[in-house]
Amino acid sequence: MATARPEDADAEGKDRVIVGIDLGSSHSLVCAWIDGAPRLIPNGAGEVLTPSCVGVGDDGRILVGKAALARRETHPWDTATRFRRHLGHPHAVRLGTRDYRPEELAALVLRTLVRDAEAFLGEPVTEAVVTVPACFSGEQREATRAACELAGIKVERLLSEATAAALAHAVDLVTDEARFLVFRLGAATFDVAVAQLTDGMIGVRASAGDDSLGGDDFTALIATQAFANGLPDAAGESVAFMRDLLALAETAKCELTRRGTAHLEAAYGETSVSVALDGDTFATLTQPLLNRLWYPIERAMRLARIRAADLDHVILAGGATRMPVIRALATQMFAREPTTTIDPMHIAAIGAAVQAGIAMGDRALRGLDVLETGSRASPTVASSSTATSVTSASDPTLDLALGFAADVGKQPVTAVQGLLANALAELRKRYIDAPGQFEEHLIDLLVAQRIGQRVAVFEAAADAFHWRLADHLDALGSRGDWIRRVLTEGDDWLALDERRRFEWLDLAALGEARLDAPIVPCWPEMRVMRERFPTLIGLFVSTGTLANWKAAFDALPASSRDRPKRVVPGAESRLSTAAAAADRDRRRKAWRAAVLIVVALALCAFALWHGAPRR
Ligand SMILES: Nc1ncnc2c1ncn2[C@@H]1O[C@H](COP(=O)(O)OP(=O)(O)OP(=O)(O)O)[C@@H](O)[C@H]1O
Ligand SMILES: [Mg+2]
Fold this sequence. Notes:
This protein is an alpha/beta fold. Among the domains are: 11-213 and 289-377, Nucleotidyltransferase, domain 5 (2-Layer Sandwich), CATH 3.30.420.40; 384-495, no CATH class. The chain is built from 21 helices and 19 strands. Strands 1, 2, 3, 4, 10 and 11 form a 6-stranded mixed sheet that branches. α4 crosses α10 (347-359) and α12 (396-410) packs across α14 (437-446). The longest helix is centred in the C-terminal third of the chain and has 36 residues, at 576-611. The termini are far apart. Adenosine-5'-triphosphate is lined by residues 24-27, 84, 133, 186-189, 214-216, 250, 253-254, 257, 318-320, 322-323, 345.
């Protein structure tokens, strides 16, 4: 067998045997760069996919891969799967007589892969390039390194799976300039990376992802459909039944890919149900998951400042992208057929092997390398306090929101709806649909506007917010929850009597205009508003303002607190109370000055009268 070290390697690569490893949630692969090409290495069973599965046999022996997976049927409690998602977390699994940390379980899989590689190559493997999802956190990356260390493997490099896919694809390109988008959906994770090949260097311009979205979720939805079709709830409490049901759902999912239709039959006690699937029913069933794919894609493209039309290649990676529903979505999103020349389940391991070849100094790969400079963009976006400080140059969606917010400041409130419609039309014309982003920025920007305008914009845009955001809030994590609360409270707000709304807005404006004692008696009324609209008030009035106001109120003697001061209804402007308060303040100061002057004049006169020489 030819060695993994290329024949024409640099002196630098001498004595180093580096392999590429794709450590996956469901399967792992090892691939070597041999004689100028990547070579997937088969395991003892002759297969290139090794299940990421660890079990303990009756004799206490550790089983890894297919053997462990087979034993899971009869010994589910002594088998661990899907542990990669727990890397970096204190989550031990008991197998046989001892607990295993996720790093230890991953190390057992890594060790098996390296042994397979050593048997195949006929020499010891010294190092590995190991892939990780782009959405992996620092802790998860550290835990992956720790797993390699436990397995006795030196990590040459951790490479994001999406970048590895771009690298695998770049090797075969005749050009050395190209822009890629990698769309990677594995068993448990989703990543998008926008990468650019320039003079042989692959730079990641931006990446985004969701570390709790993958093919497993599509399988779970098929299983859920069996319950919708009549399985009793009690079935869900049987671990053995659920394991079998998920296995049937997984088979049905793959069958649907292969044949375009699939059928699942399940029975629990007296009840038997069936689920019939075809392309359309599956697309409808999985719509909530498909919606979640949009946000990281839009985010990565926005961060990379690239339009769909400017991409040269859209590359699919990860086994779940084999599903026709995903391919159709990618085709629709990018208005072209995505590239699948390399099997999506193999592409990350192949890219890791290319990186291994580069590290070993293969001259054929000279000049090609990866420069991972792109930011790791978490699915959670900037909080409202930071979003307004983002520079608009880096974010075209923010540019539009800024322009809209500025226009609103100059136009009458009645023009808001039209301005909003223009901004949304422009958004669609210039970018791939950007669900949620524009509205998020807009909500943030409202905080920087004068309160009257802020509320007017919110009220005018409420319908549009609902229409645009509804399907995407889940993808925004805690930020999505915040927006959902704003929208729900917004409905209650709009249902209020208009006069009551004006009163409360007067109060809010007053609270912003003046934070000193004279307005503090308004606090009980403000407290009612805050209790009723805890989230919305944070949008209408800054939380700093509220906190200051509350502190001033709490500092008052108890007797003077509970005199709610209702703002006079029917004031001409919602902001008139604030203006009047400022006016009163000015007048009070003027009076005080006048009194001081009169007193000073009287004193002077007195002094003159008494101090003057008597004749
Ligand atoms: N023919 C197919 N049709 C539908 N789904 C498929 C098919 N083949 C594989 N899959 C799905 O692909 C997923 C496994 O892909 P892959 O091996 O790339 O993931 P992984 O590397 O284990 O996971 P991750 O990268 O998220 O850690 C599973 O959810 C599996 O059901
Ligand atoms: Mg993977």
